[in-house]
Structures are given as C-alpha cells and as structure tokens.
Amino acid sequence: MADMKGDVTKIIELIGGKDNIESATHCITRLRLILKDQSKVNDKELEKVDIVQGTFLAGGQFQIVIGPSVPKVYDEFIKQTGVQEASVESVKQEGRNKQGALQRLVRLLGDIFIPIIPAIVAAGLLMGINNVLSNKGIFYPNAYRMEGC
C-alpha cells in the first residue's frame, strides 16, 4: 500500500502537479484526467512508474492505463490531490469541450456516418451478388442460344 502511495505521488508530479488537474475519474483499467496544460506532462517518465502500464491522449482526456487496481489508485489520487470526484460522462464532456474545431467536426461526421456503415457494406455486397448472378450464361451457358425451338 505504501508503494502505491508513492507511485500515485510520482504520477501527480509527472502530470504537472495538483494545480494542473481540472477533473479526474476512472473506468475499468484507466485513470482519466482533464488537464489544464497538457505540455506539463512528462510521458516518458510517467510510463516508468511501476503501476503505470501506458498513457495516451484521447478525446481531450489524458488517460493513464493502470489495470484492474485502478479504483484503489483513484481513491489515493483523490486523497492526495483533493480533486472532486467526477463521473466518466462529465469528464468525457469536458474533454470534448477542449477539442479544437476540426476535431469536433471529425467527431460529428463520425457520429453521423459510423452507424450507417453496416448498411453501406450490406448494400455493396448485395449489389456484387446481384451482378454476379445476373451475368449472362453463368448458370446455363447456352441459355441465350435457344436453337431448334
């Protein structure tokens, strides 16, 4: 437990300190943070901390992969930083608000087109099957030469 406390302290230092944290939450394996200044994060050193399995930035959130022990790490993180606990949805929304205009546009287009991709794929497959099956002479090579009838 003392080792985890030390690792959480290192994490806080390497993300720019308590003052760089706007909000925090966690999911099953990751600590999700909204940071005031992303440039203060020392990614390379952060990934050397024992409990950290990886880091990445996604959807305006800085995410630290911890693993299944993330609830304990999160509790210690909250104790040490004094950051108010937040829901995953509220942190996602804050992250979206921090995205640039281009990122928001791409997200909007993705939200529109991703649900219809299966229909587009199915239509393409059906058109391909139709084209193959409607080819002349595919099943009956002499069907169009009806001589002697």
SSE topology:
Blueprint (H helix, E strand, L loop, with lengths): L1 H13 L6 E6 L3 E6 L7 H4 L7 E5 L2 E5 L4 H12 L6 H10 L3 H13 L3 H17 L16
Antiparallel strand pairs: 1-2, 2-4, 3-4
Helix pairs in contact: 1-3
What are the main properties of this structure?
149 residues; alpha+beta; Gyrase A, domain 2; 2 domains; four-stranded antiparallel β-sheet; 4 strands; 15% strand
Write a structural description.
The chain is of the alpha+beta class. Helices cover about 45% and strands about 15% of the residues. Strands 1-2-4-3 form a 4-stranded antiparallel beta sheet. The longest helix has 17 residues, at about 115-135.
* Average pLDDT number: 83
The name of the CATH architecture of the largest domain is 2-Layer Sandwich
Name of the CATH homologous superfamily of the largest domain? Glucose permease domain IIB
- Count of structural domains: 2
- The run of helices and strands is HEEHEEHHHH
DSSP strand tally: 4
Helix content: 40-55%
Instruction: Give the class from helix and strand content and strand pairing.
Output: alpha+beta
Distance between the termini: 92 Å
Over the alpha carbons, how many angstroms does the gyration radius reach? 27 Å
Q: Which regions contain 5 or more consecutive residues with pLDDT less than 50?
A: none
Shape: elongated
In short:
The chain is built from 6 helices and 4 strands, in the order αββαββαααα. It has 149 residues and is of the alpha+beta class.
